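Lab notebook page, bench 4
Experiment: in silico fold of construct C2
Operator: M.H.
Input chain length: 319 residues
Purpose: comparison with the prior construct
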Amino acid sequence: MIVGLGGLLILAGCDVPNLRSQVIPQEEMKMKVTEFVNENMMRPGTVASIKEIELDGGLYEITLEADGQEFTTYMSKDGEIFFPQGINIEEFAEQKKKTAEVESLQKAATLAALDKKEKPEVELFVMSHCPYGTQTEKGILPVLDVLGDKVDFKLKFVDYVMHGETEAKEQLNQHCIQQEQPDKLQEYLGCFLVEGKGEECLASTGIDMDTLENCVAETDQEFGITASLEDKASWRGGQFPMFNISKEENEEYGVQGSPTLVINGKQINAQRDSKSLLETLCAGFKELPDECNTELPTNPPSPGFGFDEGTGPTQAQCS
């Protein structure tokens, strides 16, 4: 059974096997456990550290700290079995490698099956304050800078909001920037994704406020955004206000959360680093432009606001 605790994933429910006699020194054990846990068992953006370690009989008792919480785990004194459930580290690494190989083949097959177009159509569905949506936006912005008008990119929104009125208003602004001042969208997003300060970014990127406000008012009335915020009876599952600007596309593509990437009408799962996203978008071309050979960062951005690097790829969504 997999148990998630404060960003740490541990495995529980296994009998303790016979323990070996070799004892790894404490400092070496600390490094071994820290490396294993952070490379294999942490959610992106979360790092575990060892607060205490003590040899107790045949096991090292280890107090880990992650995300402001403490957890006790165990390692056999020879460094081969990690508890609460026994995990043979070599076997775990081998299985992880095999899984990665299978996923790579599946991804290649999916991309090869994409419809090809002279100018690929790229639709990214997000919630403006979803940390995984912003993560993908930060990953894709350098790709859009490279490909420019060789792709037809549209930022779209999941048909409900999970982050309240603030998110709904921000999405109205972003929709209208794209509709009325599209040459400003990427610059605005590059600013907004730093700290989520929309008002400051509207000013710093030179958005025409009269045009924006007129569009927001008309769009709000057309799609009933404010009305939905005020009518809890209409909320999805009684929890989340509807945001119906892209409702038809949400239904067409089966959008289930933020982010969802659609290329040439097909929903695609992609890693969120810029290199992977460039490869994914370029799979939609009939003929690859030279820009598809551009070297871009291989590390994913961190979830949320800010342009720090994350700790690894993720498929998590706000849903």
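Observations: The first helix runs from residue 26 to 40. The domain at 2-88 is CATH 3.10.450 (Nuclear Transport Factor 2; Chain: A,).
Next step: discuss at group meeting.
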